Every structure is written in C-alpha cells, then in structure tokens.
Amino acid sequence: xxxxxxxxxxxxxxxxxxxxxxxxxxxxxxxxxxxxxxxxxxxxxxxxxxxxxxxxxxxxxxxxxxxxxxxxxxxxxxxxxxxxxxxxxxxxxxxxxxxxxxxxxxxxxxxxxxxxxxxxxxxxxxxxxxxxxxxxxxxxxxxxxxxxxxxxxxxxxxxxxxxxxxxxxxxxxxxxxxxxxxxxxxxxxxxxxxxxxxxxxxxxxxxxxxxxxxxxxxxxxxxxxxxxxxxxxxxxxxxxxxxxxxxxxxxxxxxxxxxxxxxxxxxxxxxxxxxxxxxxxxxxxxxxxxxxxxxxxxxxxxxxxxxxxxxxxxxxxxxxxxxxxxxxxxxxxxxxxxxxxxxxxxxxxxxxxxxxxxxxxxxxxxxxxxxxxxxxxxxxxxx
Length: 383
Description:
The structure is a single chain. The chain has helices spanning 17-23, 40-60, 73-87, 103-114, 132-138, 161-169, 190-193, 234-237, 245-283, 310-317, 338-342, 347-351, 364-382, and strands at residues 5-6, 67-70, 94-98, 118-122, 143-147, 174-176, 197-201, 212-216, 288-289, 300-304, 321-322, 353-357. By secondary structure, it is α/β, with parallel strands linked by helices. The chain folds into two domains: 5-12 and 262-382, Aspartate Aminotransferase, domain 1 (Alpha-Beta Complex); 17-256, Type I PLP-dependent aspartate aminotransferase-like (Major domain) (Aspartate Aminotransferase, domain 2, 3-Layer(aba) Sandwich), CATH 3.40.640. The strands form four sheets. A four-stranded parallel sheet has the order 4-3-5-6, with helices on both faces. It has a three-stranded antiparallel sheet with strand order 2-8-7, with helices on both faces. The chain has a three-stranded antiparallel sheet with strand order 9-10-12. The protein is globular, with a radius of gyration of 21 Å.
C-alpha cells in the first residue's frame, strides 16, 4: 500500500492505464488534425473524435450530435450559461440557480449580472437539497434558465433534477445541470432526467485533464446557444479551436470504461465509504456527517470533527492521508466553505469539516489505514 493514501478523488483522479494506452498513439503515429480533410492523417483523427463522441453519448444516453468537446467543465459551463443567456435574451433575462453551485457557475452568473441578467440564488435545506418550493416561487415570466448541479463537489448531494426539469419545461425554461461530479460516479441519463444542457469533465473519472464535453439537447426542446469563442467554426460553430484529439480519445475511453464498470464500482465504493463513516463515528465522539445520508454520491463523505480545525487536521494527515476541506478550486481561500454555510452550519462546524472522496483504486486496507491515521491525529489535536 502506497502512502499517503489518496482520498481526494473529487478533486481529480489518476488516468486509467487503459485510457492512457488509448491516447498514446494520437501523440505520435496518429498525430493528425481532425479538421484536416485532405489526407489520411486528418481522417484518422476525425474518426477517433467521432468514436469518442459516440462513447460519451452512450454513457449519458444522448445522441452523438448532441455532444460538443471542450477543454473541460469550466469552459462547458461558460458556454452553457453565457451562450444560452445570449440566445434567449429576447425572451427574458432571469436566471435561477442554487447557492451551493460550483464557483464556475456562480462566477458566470455574477458576470451575467453585469450584463443585465437578474439572478436568483435559491437556498438549500439543511440536508443540502434544493428547496423546490422556493425554486418554484422564484420563477417569473422573465425566467429563461434554471441551473442546478446534479451532484455537489463538496458534500456529494444529488439534486432531484428530474422533478426540477418538469417544473422548468412546463414553463418553457431551459434546465442546465453541471454533472462534473456525477458522470462516471453514478448513472446519468439525460433522457430520463430531461436535462437540456450538461457539462462534464474527463479528469473527474479517470480521463485526462484538459478534456471535457457539453451535452446540448437537440429536440424536445431544441436548445440554441451563441458561441463564446470564434475562429474556425469547429464543433458545429459552437466551440472553435483545434480539437485536443488525444484528450478527446481519453475522454471517450473513460466513458466506455465507466459504462461497463459503474454498477460494480458503485457497490464496492459505497461499502468502503460506509465503513469509513461508521468507524470514524464510533471511534471519535460527536462527529457529524454534513448533508443528506441518502441522496449523495457513493464515494463522498463530508464529516465534521467538533473542536478540531480542519486545516490543523489536514496538516497532521498531509504525509499519510490526502483529503480536503472543500473544493479544490477554493482550497486556498481562508474562509469557511460557502456550501457548508448554506446548509446552516456555523463557522466553527464548517471550519472543522473535511471531505473524504474515494475512487476506483481505493482499497479496504487503505480505508483501515486512513481510519488509524485520522483517529490518531484527532487524539493529538484534542490534547
């Protein structure tokens, strides 16, 4: 067993060796530009991109023509929100989102507010689930987009997007759902959930960094976007730029592997997470799990250690257990997690909370080792 044990899989994941094997030829022998239409090097690259597009679509039950490749989820979120706002601006200027969304969404909304958008930030309940009644009350005749993330990156809460989609579509409102933390961890079906726009990122489920995709519904309803990047007309004129063929191949392969293995992964990882949770609660009095115990990702445990500052605990664990006090994107911010604060937690509890996120490589021995290290560190800090 390697040390430190990695329990920060919601921040990023290692590239699956099978994904790397699929990618490698496209750095060397098959290095063509997918936009080159006059020779075999370009055709081979284009075919690889087409295959990956089908693999992504298959995983989420979409059509290949509904998949646009991006550099990652942040770009896909920007294209979704800003592109949809521009496309439907003549119908209204109101966006509804949730207080616990990822910063990529919240910062986009702040930017759009500067351009005239009216944004309502709906609160969540103490379990982290969005308040459906308050979301409904927030809708106005000017509402054009509802944006609710599928699974939260800090507490793993899975939002009821199917119910929200029914509300949105009954009023001809587009539903965008950030699925960055959901795809590859749980079954995601855009037909069943009726999501209209859905960003995802390869590096969250054993693909490479720098490769992502955006699902854009083409019927019932057909969603229109305004491109946010110009130059060349790639990706149906929605995302110009030379395609990252090796990264796209890696994303596609990661999707194909997830489609085959996700059911078994969910069962095994849930069991290990539950062992981590129940054992820590038995050994360390007064610990509490943040967020719902049922509507959450199988790999995520956000737990508070009362009387212990998370920063101090993480320092004690730095050489033995890799974990996080919140999102990787906000880990340098010395403020309590806005996600935990939205649940109603006070600053002291929020500052004492740590996120442990498991992955495919996580073993039972690693969980036992982590439990030993965590309990020992807490004992030292309590003295």
